[in-house]
C-alpha cells in the first residue's frame, strides 16, 4: 500500500487508452463535426430494431452459457486437482487460437455442404427426417441464421462463464456444506440454500464477461449470420468504415449501447447484493 | 531465480534469430529517404512463387526505403486519411478518388517526374473521376460480374435477373456493401449506378428486400465468397473479375459473365495525398510502377487488367485474349464506373441499406 508509485504505469495506461478514448467518444457523440448537438441521439429511434435484436441474441447466448457452464463448473470444482488442471486447459485451449480463425472454422462446419451436413447425410439422418416428416431436405439450414450467431457467441465466450463460476464454487468452505448436512439438509437443499447463493458472484462476473462482448460483436454475425441481419457491432463499424463515414453517429450509438449495458449490469449487481445479504441473515 | 535467469537467457538467444529473419537491413542502405505506400492486400507482385519482388527491386534501384502498408477497402483508407495517417502513395478506386479530389485531400501530380505515364492507354485518360487527369495514374482495372457454378445452373447466365430468380432460392451470394449490392439492383432495373434519384434507389432496395424475403439470398459476403463458390456452397455470386480468375484456378466449374444490362468497371489509380512528406519519392514510385517489366510482373501475379499499353502487348496472348480479364470494347461500353455521390445520397444509401438488413 505504501508504494503507490508502482501503480503509476498502469494508471497512465488506463488514462491514455481507456479514459481518453471514452472522453473522445463522449465528445463525438454530442458533436456533428461543426457544433455540439443532440441530433445524433434524435435518430437513435431508427436503430431500435438493431438494438433490440443485439440485446436479445446476447441475452439468449448468456442464458445458454449459464445453463451449460454452471454444471460444468460445478462438477469441475468437485474433481481432484489433476482432473481440474486437465479440464481447465481443455476449456482454455480454443482461446489460444485466434478468435476469427475459430469462427471461420464454424463456417465450414455449419455450411450446407459442410462437415455436419455431410455427416448427417452419411449416417442417414437427413433421409430419416424426410421419411418421418415427409419433407424434402437435402441439407439442414444452419449457417446464415440467427441460431448460428448465438452458437458462435456461446462457443467463443463459454470459457468466460465457466471459469469465474468454477473459481467461486471451488472457494466455498467445505465445512459449511458439512454443517448444513449435519443439520439435516439433503443435497438438493444444500445446493439451493448454500451453494447456489454463494456462487452468484461468479455467475454475475460470468454474465458480464459473456454478455458485453456478445452485444458488441460484429465478426460473428458477419461470418456465421451471413450478413443477413445487422447487429450493433455491424452498425457501429459501418459508421466508421462505411460509405457515409459518420464517426459522430457511431460514437453516439456506442455511447447508448454502453449506457444500456451499464444499466443492465447495475440492476444485476443490485440483485446479486441482495442475494449475499440474504445469506448473511 | 535461476529458472527466471535461464528463461531470460533463452529468450535473448532466440531474439537475434528473429531479427535476422525479419529485419531488412539498415537505413544506411537507403540513402535517398523513404516512401510510405498504402495498397490493397494481395495487389502487387511480392516475390512469392518466383515472381518479381517489386518493392525490393525499387529499393535497390533507387535507394529509397519503401514502408509498405495494406488496408482492406476504400472506406478504411478514407478513415485512415481522415484520422491523419500520412502516406505518400495511395491506390484508391475511382469513386473514392473523386471524393478525395472534391474534399481537397489529394496533391496534383507533376507528370514531368512520371514519364512512364505516357504509356497509359488513351481510353483510360481523363476519366470521369479525375476529368483533368491531374491527380491519378491508373494502376489496375477490372469489371464486376456474376460468377456462377456451371454444374449448379441449367442455363448460361447472361443477366442480373438470374440473381432475383426464385428457382435459385438459397443459392445466391450478394456483395456485403451497400454501393455494390444496391448497384446490382439499380442496373437490373436499368438505372445508373450514380443516380441521385431517391425514388430509383428506394425501388432498387425494394427489389433487394424482395430477393431476401423470397429466400433467394444465401448470404451477404465479401472475401468469404472465395470459399463458398470454390466449394460449391452456392450456385452464383457477384464479385470481381480478377478474383474470379483466382477462384477458377481452384474450381474449373466456375464461369464469369458481365451481365447484358451492363456492369461496373472499376479503376484503381495511384495518387498522392495532400501534405505527403515525400512527394518526389512518391512520383518516382508511381513512375516505377508504370514501367513495363513491373507492370507485367504485377499483372501476372494478381490477375487484374493493366491500363498500360506496353504491358498488355507484352503479356501472354492467352491472358489478353481472355474476355474475362480483357473484355471487348462492346462490353466495356456497356459498363459504368462508380462516381462519388453527394453526402445526402451517401447517408440515404446507409439508411436504405439498414432497411434491407434490419
SS class of chain A = mainly alpha
Report the helical percentage of chain A.
over 70%
Number of domains of chain B: 2
Task: Tell me the CATH superfamily of chain A.
Answer: MetI-like
- Indicate the mean pLDDT of chain B: 91
N-to-C CA distance of chain B = 58 Å
The level-1 CATH class of the largest domain in chain B = Alpha Beta
Features:
heterodimer, A: globular, B: 358 residues, alpha/beta, D-Maltodextrin-Binding Protein, domain 2, 6-stranded mixed sheet, 3-stranded parallel sheet, 15% strand
Topology summary:
The complex is a heterodimer of chains A (281) and B (358).
Chain A: H1 8-29, H2 39-42, H3 48-77, H4 81-92, H5 99-110, H6 115-122, H7 125-133, H8 146-171, H9 174-182, H10 187-216, H11 219-223, H12 232-241, H13 247-280
Helix pairs in contact in A: 1-13, 3-8, 3-10, 8-10, 9-10, 10-13, 12-13
Chain B: H1 2-22, E1 34-39, H2 54-62, E2 65-70, H3 74-82, E3 89-90, H4 94-102, E4 106-107, E5 137-149, E6 172-175, H5 178-188, H6 198-213, E7 217-221, H7 225-230, E8 236-240, H8 241-250, E9 254-257, E10 265-270, E11 272-273, H9 279-289, H10 292-302, H11 309-314, H12 317-320, H13 329-334, H14 343-357
Parallel strand pairs in B: 1-2, 1-3, 6-7, 6-8
Antiparallel strand pairs in B: 4-11, 5-8, 5-9, 5-10
